[in-house]
Design a protein that fits this description.
By secondary structure, the chain is an alpha/beta fold. The chain has helices spanning 4-8, 19-22, 52-62, 74-93, 109-119, 140-143, 161-171, 193-202, 254-258, 294-310, 312-330, 363-374, 386-392, 397-408, 429-443, and strands at residues 29-30, 37-38, 40-41, 101-106, 127-131, 147-151, 175-181, 206-210, 233-237, 248-253, 270-273, 278-280, 336-339, 353-358, 376-377, 379-381, 418-422, 452-454, 459-461. The strands form six sheets. It has a seven-stranded mixed β-sheet, sandwiched between helices. A four-stranded antiparallel β-sheet has the order 13-14-17-16, with helices on one face.
Amino acid sequence: MTTPTELSTKTEKIVVEMLPELLVGYDTVVPTLTGSRRYINFDNAASTPTFEPIVESVNSFLRWYSNVHRGTGFKSQLASWAFEHSRDIVAEFVGADLSKNVVIFTKNSTEAINKLANRLNLSKNDIILTTLMEHHSNELPWRRVGQVVHVGLDNDGQISRQDFLSKLKLYGDRVKIVAITGASNVSGYINDIDFFAREAHQVGAKILVDAAQLVPHRPVQMKSNDPVHKIDFLVFSAHKMYAPFGVGVLVGERETFEKGDPESVGGGVVDIVTLEEAYWTELPEKEEAGTPDIIGVVALAKAIRMLESVGWDNIIRHEAELTEYALKKLNKIDKVIVYGDKDPSNAANRLGVISMNLKGIPHALAAAILSYEGAIGVRSGCFCAHLYVKSLLKVSEEDATKLENEILARNRSHIPGTIRASFGIYNTKEEIDHLIGMIEKIVAGDYRKDYLLNKEKGEYYPPDFEFKFSDYFSI
């Protein structure tokens, strides 16, 4: 195993083959029903683990940690420099022109979208055009500030361009925002942002891209100086790009945030306060009330540098190889249903996010078996994208109403969903082999048959076994 000292010398140039060894916790062993096994993480679409160089950067910064801005001590000045330098790294990463754009640090992508929704000064008659593919975070905030209209899907689960264009034509200049995901956290589809930006701008609308799922896997550029294809607002989260220390990013037009009052107020957002008035300070501090997540920002900047060191061509090639490899094997298993694009040859044009079901086996049970018997971490359910998953599963309105009533009665026994395996830059074909082997065992009925269902949670568990987490970690 590589030592931390050796790792520090490798952060300048990192190749894909090094990544498993650099991953924090890669060799972690966890308990299962059949004994201890090395844990395999295929839950990267939810949140990613981190790497040794990122931890080292954080640990190195901790000795200098202090609050930022207006402190005269050396540590405060150094922390302020690191914080603002990290902001510049983020701007460079997404091609933001800081004469036109501002980089605002938030808690996560969800908070970033809520902040934007509250700052756009929309009326209840204004149209927000979003899609049935969206994560709840890019749908629910908009319901509070305007009239949300959903673009439908094609038969294969992609966003219907025809429906998008027809709704733009129908609503015209009433459309103020097109809010769209850069890539789906359910199917892995990557959306053509240039197309949606161009069409949105033609009717005078602005475009928000939820890039939380896209940024760790593909380069994204704001194109600030391209009036046709520019991204007006972009959000993403560090915890999905190997810096799980908690920070989100909102990049957008300066003029939007220069006008009006900040969304949150308190320390750090004012130049002066009197008994009668508060005078707001300049951007970006104006939109970052209170003490920010300084360590999270430093970790994000280091994660960006690490992704750049690996190189986008290498990242895309590796993840496409994993996706192609997995799809080829899954397509050979009769009882596996893959949602979205199943074509292995098209793997380079999508993300390594594969949602599936095993015929005759509840998704929550299959996920539990993978964990308790295979030490494999996947996710099951609707992935905070209920509208999209129900569309992919073709849940009827009648069934949807019945399910809603059951869930409201605290019974999640029949909640629809899928199993989702999502790949990161550190995953390997050998790990996929283990996943496929476990799926083959499950569809063959080769697993314990006495799992119990917790109806309120909709989760399965073995009756005579439990994880004793305090044996592995304590605070």
